[in-house]
Amino acid sequence: MSFTVSPSSATTPLVLALDVGSTGTRGGLFDATGRPLSQLRHKVHHQFTTATDGTSTIDADQVVAEVAEVITTVCRRLREASGKHRPAIRGVGIDTFASSLVGVDDHGRAITGCITYADSRCSAQVARLRDEWDESAIQQRTGTRIHSSYLPARFAWLAQEHPDLMQRAARWMSLSEYVHLQLIGATAAGTSVAAWTGLLDRRTGDWDDPLLEQCGLERDRLNAVAPPSEPLVPTGNHADLPSKVWAMVAEAHWSPGISDGFASNVGAGGTDPRSAVIAAATSGAMRVLVDHVPEQVGSGLWCYRVDERRSIVGGALNDVGRAVSWLESTIRMPSAEELAELLGSDPDPDTPLVLPFLSGERSTGWAGGARAVVTGLGAAHDGGALARGMFEGIAASYARVAAQLSEIAGTPERILASGRVSADLPALLPVLADALQAPLTPVTIKRSTLRGTALVTLDVVAPDVARADPTTAPTHEPHPARAEYHRQRLVEFERVYAALIG
What we know:
Belongs to the FGGY kinase family. The protein is an alpha/beta fold. The chain contains 17 helices and 23 strands.
């Protein structure tokens, strides 16, 4: 059964959700129940600029143009579909990939590329800061470790390698903040976006002044922090949007940006502490949304403040979909049917052991400079054996997160699986269920992150409307007989990790 709804059957008010991800910018309209309107969406593809030195950037103004194109296209399609009786758009929300950084000049224009979460050029500064700073104290205040994904090490790298940019930049902001500044002339750092920088005091929901001082960064070079309930007020700076399009969104609630991790959890149905969500896209994560600020954060995890009272706790993997893409372009992969049969069969102790850190590790060891390790690979192994080893390594990485997560949030009543990889590669899910020894329920709606952004905005503009539940597929039950195999593989995983990375 389709989860979408036609414009004529939609429950008002409508919200426009925008999502800037690793592979493109997309947007679509949702009704007040959280269902997407059929045919009223658009996507513009893009890719990061990468290099062997760890560079991972994207042009910030290119993304602004992409967002403007998406808004324009979706609004025009709504006009065409609805005629004179089109419903009003009461909210506009945007999520972006987390932990982005753009430097702007006095006129609000970008003087740097947008540095993404995957940029590892500050790995040397990570090592230095871990020696010089009290990382444990910083993690308990901000919920984040010192890592190449977060801004303290990135600012240290900029100060060392590009001091001219550090001097020239009047302000530093995330990608969503920059998009808002260019499109509507107003901006703020959404609480969850600020949390993902590694600079937010998770207990106060404001910038962490001691850490700003350590970074040599004045508070006025960052935007104010605002939760989703505090709207941005457009100043009329909408040159990239046609006047008829602007008229459709000008009076909307423009929510400050939110992180894609927060949106992904909400969109998949992980809106309470009883539900953990495994996200499997280009990168991956396992998260639980809790209705308080936890007192302590496990060393391998992060804890992000997302609004006035809630936090999201979990861990992240750099390489899930990225690992699949690498396999597809590098080895002779089995067919989809062969792969499903291979991954669904009883595990083979002769399978190569893979630590799947193609672009560095986040949770649980936070080794930004880590690279993938393959052990036990012999001449008799084929592409299917290497693929199985990679998928078991991904499953082991999720299991490492789950073990620490249970110490803070308890054992979840259900685990939901969402994201492109879980949909395109369903054969991975039984391996995950076996490695976690827990039932795993696939969420079958598409674009759950985009839906989550819509739901966060709807919580403000239509709080009293009941939301539609996302559709799911049959639950994958774990095989108890395979538990010991995965336990032993995890022991070996940790042994190799300690010897070569940890």
